Model the fold of this input.
Amino acid sequence: MASVTGNFTISFADIDRDTINIAKDGIFIGRLDTCEIVLDHKSVSRIHAAINFRDGKYFLVNLSSSNVLTLNGRLLGPQKDDVLADGDTIQIGPFTISVGPLDKNLNLIVESQFSERLPRKTGDLAPKEPQAPAPPPASEGVLKVFWEKRTRAKEDWGTRLRPTEKPKPGKAMFNWRPTSDLRRPWRIGLFVWALLILGAAGVFAYFRYPQTYAPKPLSNPHVTTENSRGVAVRANSGSCTTCHTPDQPVENSCISCHQASEFHSSNTKAHEDAGITCTVCHKEHQGADFDIKKTAIQSCAECHNDSNKTIYNGKPVHTAHGGTYGYPIVDGAWKWKGVYREIADAIPEINRSITGDKDENARLNRHFHTVHTGRLTVPAGLKGDSRGLVSCRTCHTNFSPIDRETPKATCAACHTTSPEAANRDQRFGTSTANCISCHVQHPYSTGRWSEFLTEDAINRRKAAVIKKLTKPADE
Done:
C-alpha cells in the first residue's frame, strides 16, 4: 500500500549539520526559522517555496512573488508548481538544492555557491599584512589651476548670443533680440505658485465635492462620529487619513483601530499563513448601506470553492465539506480536528473540563459535546432537557448501542436557516448553511453567532473574551 505522506532526507554539503529525515505531506523552504530548509540570505523570501507530496509524486511550488526560483535553469513563476525528478536542480538565491534518487525518500542536498570561497573556521583566516598608508595627494599646480579659472571668469564679458549688458546702437546690433531658445528658463517661483494654486483647488474640491475622491461613499459604521459598540478604539468619522497613510498599508490601520475591549482583529492561523488580510474579505467604498460583515461571510463560499484555482501557501482550496455539512463521524471515527485554541479561549466550559483525555478520540468527543450540551436552547421540533436546553437525547435516540444516525439529521435544525425565516441572520446571503456557527474568523470577539446560545452562555463567553483581551502579554 502506498504511503500517504512524503519522506524527505535533507543533507547539507557545505555546512556542518546533521542529515534530517522528515515524514510529512510537505516541507517549506525559506529564510524563516520555522522552515524545514532554512536558507539565510537576503535574496531568499521568508517562505520562498514548498515541496508537497501528492498522488505519489513530489511537487515543487514557488511561493515567492518577489524573488526568483529556477528548476533546472528554467524560471518557475509565482504560485506555479512542477513535478520533481531524479537529478533536478533547484536554484534559490545563492543556494543550490540537488534532487537525489527517488525511491522511497526524496533526497535533497543543499549547497551554497559561496562555500568554496568562505573559510569554514575562524582559524582559517590568515592575518593580513599591514599596508603602507596612501601617499597624500599631489598639491602641485593647485593654485595655478585656481587662478586660471578665476581669470577666465573675469574675462567672460558675454557674447552676441548671450549679452551681459544693454546692446549699444550699431550696424550689427541695432535691432538685436535674443531668440526663444536662448531665453532664460522660468524661475522656480512660478512652479511653486502653480503648485500652491493647484493644491488649494484640490482642497476646495475635497470639501465641496467629496464624492469625486472615492468610487462610492463609505459604509455607515465608518462615517459615524460615535464609538459605542466596543469594536474599535475610536470612531472613523469619515476620515480618509485614518485608514490611508503614506507609509503603511491599509491593513495596519485596521489592526491598530480594531483592538477594543470586546473585539480583537486577530486572524485564524490558516488565513494568516495563506496571506489573507482584512481588505481581502472586507470591502469599503461600496455605498453607505453596504454591510461589511455580511459580504465577508458571503465571500467564504466564493473563496472555498472548487472553481477557485488560486494556490494559497502552496495548496489549493476546495468546496467546504464536499458541498455538505453534518455530524463529523465517519465509520465510527471522528473526522474532525477539534475546537481551535482561539475558539476554546472563549468557551470556559472546555477549559474547565480538561481532566486528562486518554486518547485523541476522547478529546474530540469532549470538545464536540461540551460545545453543544447545556449551552444551546433546543430548536423547534427537537427534544431538550427540563430547562429547554440541548442534551444528549436531543440528538441520540438510544445509547446501547450508540445512535450515530439521528445526529446527522438533527444538525440541520441549528446549522441551516430558511431564507424566509424571521430569525434568519441576513449575513448568510443566499446560502442556507450557517458557516460562522462553527468557523470563526475573529475568535476574540463578543459579537459572534449566538442564535441558539443561552443568555448565561453568552455572558460567560463575553467575560472570557474580555479577560483574554485585557490579560497582560507576559501572563
